[in-house]
Amino acid sequence: MADVLAKMMSGFPEWLPAAKRQEKRILDIVAKVYESYGFTPIETAAVEKVKSLATTGDVSKEIFGIHRLAGEGENKKAEFGLHFDLTLPTARYTADNFAKLQFPFKRYQIQKVWRGERPQKGRYREFYQADIDVIGDGTLPLHYEAEVVQVIYDIFTQLNIGEFTVKINNRKLLEGLYRQQDVDDMNATLIIVDKIDKIGKDEVVRLLIKSGLSIEQSTFCAELAEKKFSVSQALEFIQELDTSDELLAAAQNELKTIFDNLSHLPDGAVIFDLSIARGLDYYTGSVYECVINGLESYGSVCSGGRYDNLAEKFSKKKLPGVGLSIGISRLLYLLFENGRLDTLAPTPVQTYVVLFDESQRPKANKMATEMRANGINVEVAPSVKKFGKQIQFAEKRGAKFIVIPEQDREDQMKNLETGDQEDFSVEKMRGFLSS
Amino acid sequence: MADVLAKMMSGFPEWLPAAKRQEKRILDIVAKVYESYGFTPIETAAVEKVKSLATTGDVSKEIFGIHRLAGEGENKKAEFGLHFDLTLPTARYTADNFAKLQFPFKRYQIQKVWRGERPQKGRYREFYQADIDVIGDGTLPLHYEAEVVQVIYDIFTQLNIGEFTVKINNRKLLEGLYRQQDVDDMNATLIIVDKIDKIGKDEVVRLLIKSGLSIEQSTFCAELAEKKFSVSQALEFIQELDTSDELLAAAQNELKTIFDNLSHLPDGAVIFDLSIARGLDYYTGSVYECVINGLESYGSVCSGGRYDNLAEKFSKKKLPGVGLSIGISRLLYLLFENGRLDTLAPTPVQTYVVLFDESQRPKANKMATEMRANGINVEVAPSVKKFGKQIQFAEKRGAKFIVIPEQDREDQMKNLETGDQEDFSVEKMRGFLSS
């Protein structure tokens, strides 16, 4: 693994500058793609009331509470806690500001979240999430489910980190098919089949039997979870569903809308994977996961789905939605860890102005100002040193050019990659840097 | 004040989307200017060890400690607290990672910080800071002090929020001049004169006398604090200093370097203001503040200065530095409050594709995809509605264009500002949007 992590407190990752620049590049791409679909940024407080946070099942164990240290004698019962995801804050924000928002409310949110879980490699206590949701007032058209998958596709294409696969499934489909086999405990079954990629079919069958299913039921569910289809195969499969079952009829309609809208994507980018069952807490329809090909063992790097009512804890209004969440810190970790991503230069310096005499600094500054006004990142030599030393320093900073102010002839610029030297001109340099 | 604040918890501001987009615009400009000087981004954990935080004098009262809620029986003595500024984290980061960093280390850091102080208008418990520092290994050339002021100038120029003034002073200068008047308690005196813009000269004299200075000493200090000079006047003033005093000799050298390097800035952008004495904790030389003209009563929106040793708490190495800090949340608040800044459109949508029939959606999506590939933010109609309703909706989203997919003739585009309608072309639209 490249040297990317600064010395850090356990679970609180800090990147070295060359890695942080890569994180920033990725966050910028993600935000840009989100905005290209009209998602608007919001940012919520890092804290929520503990009574809001603590009702969300398992995760509540992991909440960091906060309290003012000054109040030594004060009641230490924390009223506020750090948010552990961006979904609950968005639900609260949407309910609180309902009258001031436009629906469908398409928001994105890129923030740190905090969880008190045991830190492991790539599993942090503090990490970046980058989420979108489309939230409807009362109803939400199905085509937004395809849009969310399209957003995932655009982002992972633009990140340029190798091939990836978006897996799609539908909770109503699984529940409908299970029901036809008289499986009662849907959630317990979904939790087990969701593990099939990690533990294999035989182990899934064993666990299902242990959970109370018959051999026939267990085999059915495990074999179903093994099915993976291309988009065209998926359309065939859902065509044959028994739509006298209302859940299956709904699933057919939902999946058809998604796959119809995604049929233009390249083969293999999207698959229909009947093992995906995630999001037991609030997902109610289609669900998605994205894995990096070759890094499947790390699990999904992005996931999402459709829910019937995002803000039911905060509002009587029905606010259905569809969203996705990218775990940026974890993604970055596994890309660095597996050599899928290089660090960038340790600074954004593109051009370095050499100084042979401190009296040239005003001229050097003037040249730097002109370049900055033209969108070029420039550093002027910290101090006068020998030419070779300055070139070394410029290269370490990551500069592509050095500029040499001259007295008796045209100022010079030198391309540090090709070695070419020529008369200085901002326009030429801009051309080289943008090519 | 425009409607900018979402319903929020006291002291934890949340902007409505149209205001959050403005905050993002400002943060992007700030980052871009920082990078244009070669500052590289770092980001540190939101938490620091309480034992690091709690030794920094007054602020320690305001620290939010964090602890895991799950450990009900656990020791509630918080080991970690949320950082209250970005200076201490940078000092710790620089010391921890000394061997992996290049010096001068020019880093920027844009993050939230948290303080448990009583919330007031524009004074928050959670707010964004955007900082830079140049940190040297052992020594740091004086020209970086001018660079920091130049960065302030570039940022406030690019923000385009009206005129502003950067005030410069030097702690060594004040201490040298006070010493010549036999003033003993430097810090107490500096704290009082720093208030002169708010409380006036007479009150400063009264407080100085109360603090133990003679009438003559008090009058001298107050009259000194009233002095404000242009750059050329400043250069004259410091030329006349008694440089047999080593503090005054150092001040003269430091100020001359700064003002020489800033002499190209427009008249009035930078002034030499002898009342500025801020940063008693660690500033040791030049200090800066920036105020928005006409909003001086709000105090400075940006401040910084030179310090001898940033990381003395964390390292035996001498790491002198110069830096600045912009309180973004407060700046935003006062710009909105005073009508100096408008909110943006509530979404980043530039173009809206109209739908008259759901069967046109695939075509509309294809057109949207082409526009997105060309850097245009596009939303396709959520559902089929009457033309007028769709135009209204597009305008509410902030779209500049609508696009109308056609069946039997060329697709159309309509400029919502001018009403002009013509055949659709991505290139033409790009041209209009970028002009």
From TrEMBL, chains A, B:
Q: Give the reactions, separated by semicolons, that this protein catalyses.
A: tRNA(His) + L-histidine + ATP = L-histidyl-tRNA(His) + AMP + diphosphate + H(+)
Spell out the PROSITE patterns in the cross-references: AA_TRNA_LIGASE_II
Give GO MF terms, alphabetically: ATP binding; histidine-tRNA ligase activity
Q: Which CDD domains match?
A: HisRS-like_core (cd00773)
Q: What is its EC number?
A: 6.1.1.21
User: Where does this protein reside within or beyond the cell?
Assistant: Cytoplasm
Pfam families according to UniProt: HGTP_anticodon (PF03129), tRNA-synt_His (PF13393)
What is an annotated GO biological process for this record, any one?
histidyl-tRNA aminoacylation
Q: Which GO terms describe its cellular component?
A: cytoplasm
Per UniProt, the keywords (alphabetical) are: Aminoacyl-tRNA synthetase, ATP-binding, Cytoplasm, Ligase, Nucleotide-binding, Protein biosynthesis
Task: Please list the residue ranges annotated as the Aminoacyl-transfer RNA synthetases class-II family profile domain.
Answer: 25-348
Q: Which residues bind L-histidine?
A: D85, L86, T87, R115, Q129, D133, R278, Y282, Y283
Query: Which family, according to the similarity comment?
Result: Belongs to the class-II aminoacyl-tRNA synthetase family.
Q: How does it assemble?
A: Homodimer.
Classification via NCBIfam families:
hisS (TIGR00442)
What protein is this chain from? Histidine--tRNA ligase
Q: Which organism is it from?
A: Lentisphaera araneosa HTCC2155
List the top taxonomic levels of the source. Answer: Bacteria, Pseudomonadati, Lentisphaerota, Lentisphaeria, Lentisphaerales
